[in-house]
Amino acid sequence: MTVPTTAIPRPGSEQLQSRVRDLSGQNVFACYQCGRCTATCPFSLNPQQVLRRVQLGQVAEAAELETTWRCASCFSCVVACPKGVDPPRVMQALRIMATSGELGRKHSKTHRLRSRLIAMNHRTAKIGSALAPASNWALSLPGAAVVSELVLGIHRSRRMPEFARTSFAAWFSLHAPAGDGHRGPVLLFLDTYMDYNFPAIGMAATELLERAGFAVSLAGNVCCGRPMISKGFLAEAAEQARLNVERLAGAATENVPIVGCEPSCLLTFHREYPSLVGTEELRKAAEALAPKVVLIDAFLDSLLQAGELELAFDRAKSGGRPVILHGHCHQKVFSSPAAGLRLLREAGFDADVTNASCCGMAGSFGYEKENYELSEKAIERGVLPALREWPEAEVVVMGVSCRQQIDHFTDRRPKHLVEALRDVLMDVP
Q1: What is the pLDDT of residue 99?
Q2: Which one of 48, 79, 100 terminates a domain?
Q3: How far apart are CA 274 and CA 289, in angstroms?
Q4: Other CB atoms closer than 10 Å to residue 146's CB: what's the count?
């Protein structure tokens, strides 16, 4: 019998396969090529083919596939896999190996400057906020979008989020608490977008937590590392992970909840931190910390389920208005939008949730010019049809990238869950 040349492992393939395993933590041989990952990909990519190439020892060829470089890490394929294989982690490992030169000629299919700016967004956002409103004016100048596309590879049709002149941390340092804190302390995780682009979300979250009886403090301002992970800057992401674990370990020991508003940020503590931090001591600390780090919808819903949610909603304000909730991809995979749905209904909204996959933005994916068409097709497959079914409904989304995507492709202006809930609280006498 003649063996097809495509099935012949390459010399040294076992070593490269082991390297993929070490970087990704995945056993690619658990994949039995059922094809569910490819069938569920909202971007019509082919993770099944990537895994098959690695199984065959064709690691360099796997790294050359379009899917490897265009995967948005929405994790739809992770949910679909009956064997628990995580294709995005395999593809991330391949990108690291390719860009480091481990597969031969050092090369990259990415835009290096753009990748670095996205990875270090916590720094650029801080500068942009400090220079606002001049920074916002510069972004809106005629021709700025064209220059951004030519220099950075950001599609010219995309609008970058504006910078807030007054950061959330600055507002928080001066605000008067809305409650007496009788239920004890809570740490609010300060993500980059909350601090420098959308401080109103932090304000709403603070008011909800304080009105619910908690004494709110900020859990500093150290980036979660998610943008660095997405762009392959693992050494920098590991440093952020270590910083966050070290500074928040005390809160975990004292059973102080750490609450956040951005799904991709908070779930990084659970998914990536234990394998990123390096030492066995920090790994154990990261594992102990993870259960204390919760999304604000899950935190408030746990109180609701226990009959201990000390929030009074004014149903005259909500009035049974229709609300459609769309769940962030990471939230759907590693948490659940159901908590937010219950809270919206408790507040008096006629709420439902979309049955849609990735909105198509997926962090920075939809901003990149080479992915713009895929991004547009992805939102048209699921999210836009769902929104058209509820033309009068207010749109509520927790993820910042999802809100940006809906804002860019519709005339709807989505709110974060905490804003929707805060807006219908009973007035304080």
Answers
A1: 79
A2: 100
A3: 10
A4: 10
The stretch 194-204 carries a mean pLDDT of 97
* Single residue among 52, 75, 100 that ends a domain in this structure: 100
Q: CA-CA distance, 270 to 143, in Å (whole number)?
A: 42
Distances in whole angstroms, Cα of residue 65 to Cα of each of 32, 37, 124, 207, 378: 20, 16, 31, 48, 20
Query: How far apart are alpha carbons 298 and 300 in whole angstroms?
Result: 6
Assess if residue 316 is contained within a domain.
yes
3-state helix, strand and coil shares in percent for the chain, rounded to the nearest 5:
55, 5, 35
- pLDDT at position 106 is 58
Kindly state the DSSP code that residue 290 receives in the 8-state scheme.
Answer: G
The closest of 74, 51, 76 to 61, measured between CA atoms, is 51
Residue with tokens 């989020």: 161
Residue 208 lies in a domain: no
What is the domain range of residue 342? 311-422
Tokens of 256: 């102080």
Tell me the CA distances in angstroms from 19 to 106, 127, 346, one per residue in order.
Answer: 16, 38, 50
Query: Nearest-5° angle of CA 408, CA 414, CA 419?
Result: 145
Kindly state whether residue 411 falls inside one of the protein's structural domains: yes
Q: What is the mean pLDDT of residues 149-155?
A: 92
Question: What are the tens digits of pLDDT across the range 350-402?
Answer: 999 998 889 999 988 999 999 999 999 999 988 999 999 999 999 999 999 99
Domains in the chain: how many in total? Answer: 2
Does residue 318 sit within a domain? yes
Which residues lie across from 352 on neighbouring strands? Answer: 324
Long-range contacts of residues 303-311, Cβ cutoff 8 Å, at least 24 apart: 303/212, 304/342, 304/343, 304/346, 305/342, 309/212, 309/346, 310/183, 310/211, 310/212, 310/213, 311/208, 311/211, 311/212, 311/421, 311/425
Buried b (16+ CB within 10 A) or exposed e, 16-28: bbebbbebbebeb
Report CA-CA distances (Å) from 374 to 67, 70, 198, 230, 393.
12, 10, 27, 18, 26
Contact 74, 329 (CB under 8 A): yes
User: What is d(CA 37, CA 48) in angstroms, rounded to the nearest whole number?
Assistant: 6
